[in-house]
Amino acid sequence: MLEIRNLTKIYDDGTVALKNVSFTVPDGEFLVIIGLSGSGKSTLLRCINRLIDPTEGQILWNGVDLAQLEGEELRKVRRQIGMIFQHFNLVKRSSVLTNVLTGRLGYLPTWRSLTGRFPPEDIQRAWQALERLGIADQAHKRADELSGGQQQRVGIARALMQDPKMILADEPVASLDPVLAHSILQRLESLNREDGITVLCSLHYLDLVQRYATRVIGLRQGELVYEGSREDIRQMTDAQFKEIYGEEAERIGAGGGITGSIEEHSARGGAA
Amino acid sequence: MSLKHTVPEEPRAPSLVPPAVAALLSLLLPGLGQALARSLRRGLLLLFSFATLGGLLAWRIRLAAPRDEGAVAIARKAFHLQPFLLFNALLLLLLYLWIAWDAWQTARRTEGAPVGIFALVLVAFFAVGWQVGGIDPVRFVTQLDEAGPPLMRVLWPWERAIEYPQEVQIVKAPILSPCTGEPFAGGQPKEGEPYLLTDPTCGNPSEQDGTPGTTFTLRGFGLEPNSEAEIWWEDPIGNEFRQRQEGEYVTVQTDAQGNFEVQIVMPYRLLPPSAGEGPKIWTVEARQVVSVGKPQASKELKLAIEKIIETIFIGMMATFFGILLALPVSFFAARNLMSASPFTLVIYYLTRAVLNVIRSIEPLIWAIIFVIVVGLGPFAGILALTVHSIAALGKLYSESIESIDPGPIEAIQATGANWIQTVRYAVVPQIIPPFVSFTIYRWDINIRMSTIIGFVGGGGIGFLLAQWIRLLDYRAAGIAVWFIAITVAILDYVSAEIRARFV
Ligand SMILES: Nc1ncnc2c1ncn2[C@@H]1O[C@H](COP(=O)(O)OP(=O)(O)O)[C@@H](O)[C@H]1O
Ligand SMILES: [Mg+2]
Fold first, then answer.
1. Of A51, A87, A113, which is closest to B421 when you measure between CB atoms?
2. Which of A101, B34, B393, B468 is deepest in the core (most CB within 10 A)?
3. Which DSSP string corresponds to B417-441?
């Protein structure tokens, strides 16, 4: 169980990215974080695995305050938390297989990993992960030769190699077209359901939120302004919507419930 | 350029002086008229241009006639020696008059400012530059046929690349002195070997008082054809000396069959009493330098090969040390790594500044400095190129570090990897291609530079090249030039191949 208590992040330049945010995520949850661009979603996710140091507050994960960890202890926790990025963040010039194998680095002694030779059992595991994500045939290609959707699957495979208890996904489908978005989120969903991995994922399109989230939180200018279950979001009112996305935001799409998307990035969310 | 070209300008207040006065003032001091016509900047610019051109011209005229006294004498001599100076002077005069006319115009106008006069200023500067530079296209053409033969030797130097081992071949004939009345055999014909015959076969040496000795007809057969032979003597006690006649050493030229004929007078020779009395055997000799055996690489070719190897290694070692030292330096010069604290930022600026200073000094200058420190030779060259490589590579490396994508670093950190693993898996793969590419580029430069670093004593083939050029040994210099060209061509090919593999 992940418990965020009074989390505040103020960047060096004075930007207040998170203001006193508190919420709880039971194990096995698929939590979706929504909010406008700049509302603090990335900051929140990066605070959890401490790519960013929070200014104040606690991040309790199974009773351990991640905000207090340093060095070796921090790395031991990090290796149990996979992370998936909007721009995949693969090492472009390395092979797909090598990129996946880097997910094991936290488990390997330094001297051993520096040679670039991974233990056979890790290589075995990497092939399984690639198999599971359907990109085993791409293993020896350079990462940047793959399409966007394939690259994101490599990203997921890398996270999977960590044997994670939790996955943080920062807008994992924002750079992909809607069909691919579903395929990626379905794979995250399967990890969540079949492997029981807790998923924290920031998303932009409401229909994706409704389809995959088991719980939703909304951020607005660094403040937690919404918290609800999958059912809640289906019945989200215009008022609640404007609460998250601001007065000027318009809901797009018709029919019962919210099926439209927030016009944010270049693409529209109406999935096929 | 048309005189009507004007630059737009704010309308000016009317001139302080009438146009005629302005023109007159500009004749007194170029630009003064314009200044008083409320075009101060124009006046100053014209004054400055005129004064500079006048000063330059005066200097060149004095330089052309350094020993003459009096302005007229100097000018006449200078214009006589270098008629182009006259053209310069005429341009200056034209400018002087134009400035006066321009003052008149400027005083009349209230807006616009023609720029034609500045075209004249440019032309005048250009003409001075032509004179200072000693530009002489005619000479370039007319001297081409004189330069032809040496250039041909540079272009095709290979005659100098081989040589034949040489040996002195001595052909002898005995002479009896004094004659005894009995016949003396003297030199005899030999089958298949060179031989000398003398007529007569005995005689007397010259006397100390100048009385000439016996004149012999000396004939040689079967010697090295079409070459020179020296005539030598060996006296009865074994001393060897060259035949002199009328103060000159005697040298004969063999014909196509290797035969010669020459008249020689038996020389004077003081023999010690221990030599004893009575007739003795003298020997007359024809000596030739002949080539024997197979052609061999010449001394110059061997030297050039030795030095080209040295050259390549100078370039290699300098590149190697350059990489080794540039790597750590580049981390200090990478902004993204050093912006963490003010302290590191200071190191960053310092490193950058030092690198820039080092880089702005040419490797040849560094070589001169290091020749002073460690003496002539390849080590000085290696040091010079190393220092310059560190600065150049340090800058290029640090720039490629600065441009790496932070995304993968974040991702690898997020897997729980430690710092060194992150560097190994996220940073190194990103910087290897640019590093390899820059390193090859630098290697290229270093080998090229190492071929000329010898000109200032830094070792390598440049040293030979400079020396041979100074000795006017254009064939040997040609060998060096060819070696440099071949090395650079091979290197180009090799580095293109490496680049294709790695980058
Ligand atoms: N490194 C940083 N330094 C300063 N301000 C930052 C930094 N990263 C993000 N911010 C600011 O913090 C706020 C939240 O950003 P972010 O967490 O990226 O939002 P989101 O992911 O929801 O778009 C924004 O105002 C953003 O400009
Ligand atoms: Mg973001």
1. A113
2. B34
3. --HHHHIIIIIHHHHHHHHHHHHHH
Q: For ligand 1, atom 21, which residue shows the shortest CA distance?
A: A42
Residue-wise pLDDT for B343-368, tens only, equals 888 999 999 999 999 999 999 999 99
Rg of chain B, C-alpha, whole Å: 40
At A251, list the tokens.
């809901």
Judged by a CB distance cut-off of 8 A, whether residue B274 touches chain A is no
Closest in A87, A93, A158 to B407, CB measured: A87
Identify all chain A residues contacting B425, using CB atoms and an 8 Å cutoff.
91, 94, 98, 102, 105, 113
Report the distance separating Cα A233 and Cα A210, nearest Å: 7
Q: Residue B458's closest CA among B446, B466, B450?
A: B450
The pLDDT tens digits for A241-271 are 777 776 655 554 433 334 344 433 333 333 3
DSSP strand E in B207-259: where? 215-221, 228-234, 240-242, 244-245, 248-249, 251-253
Q: What are phi and psi of B96, to 5 degrees?
A: -55, -45
Token pair in block for residue A67 = 């905000």
CA separation for the pair B163, B349 (Å, rounded): 59
Q: Are B421 and A105 in contact (CB under 8 A)?
A: yes
By the 8 A CB rule, do B103 and B26 touch?
yes
Express each pLDDT in B264-291 by its tens digit. Answer: 999 988 888 887 778 888 999 999 888 8
CA distance B451 to B65: 41
Q: Is B346 on the interface with A (CB under 8 A)?
A: no
Tell me how many residue pairs between chain A and chain B have CB atoms under 8 A apart.
84
Closest Cα to atom 24 of ligand 1: A38
Q: What is the CA radius of gyration of chain A?
A: 19
Partners of B403 on chain A (C-beta within 8 Å) are none
In our burial notation (b when 16+ CB lie closer than 10 A, e otherwise), range A66-98 reads bbebeeeeebebbbbbbbbbbbbbbbbebbbbb
Which of B405, B417, B432 minimises the CB distance to A105? B417
Contacting B residues, span 371-390, partner chain A, CB-CB under 8 Å:
none
Distance CA B165, CA B89 (A): 64
**Closest chain B residue to A111, measured at CA:** B421
Residue B290 and residue B229 in contact, taking contact as beta carbons nearer than 8 Å: no
Query: Is residue B342 reached through a cis peptide bond, with omega within 30 degrees of 0 on the bond before it?
Result: no
In the predicted model, what is the mean pLDDT of residues B143-167? 85
Question: B270 in contact with A at a CB cutoff of 8 Å?
Answer: no
Interface mutation target, options B404, B415, B420, chain A, most CBs of A under 10 Å: B415
Instruction: Give me the interface pTM, i.e. the ipTM.
Output: 0.87
Q: Assess B405–A contact: CB distance below 8 Å, yes or no.
A: yes
8 Å CB contact between B371 and B455: no
Residue A215, H or E segment: strand A215-220
Distance CA A192, CA A156 (A): 12
SS3 B241: strand
In chain A, the residue whose alpha carbon lies closest to the alpha carbon of B502 is A93
Could you give the dihedral angle defined by the CA atoms of residues B425, B430, B431 and B436, in that order, rounded to the nearest 10 degrees?
Answer: 110
Between residues B186 and B58, which one has the greater pLDDT?
Answer: B58
Residue with the smallest CA separation from ligand 1 atom 2 is: A11
Strand pairing class (A166-170; A198-202): parallel
Please return the burial class of B406, using the count of CB atoms within 10 Å of its CB with bins 0-12, 13-18 and 19+.
exposed
Q: Is A110 on the interface with B (CB under 8 A)?
A: yes
Task: Give the Cα separation of B282 and A184 in Å (integer).
Answer: 113
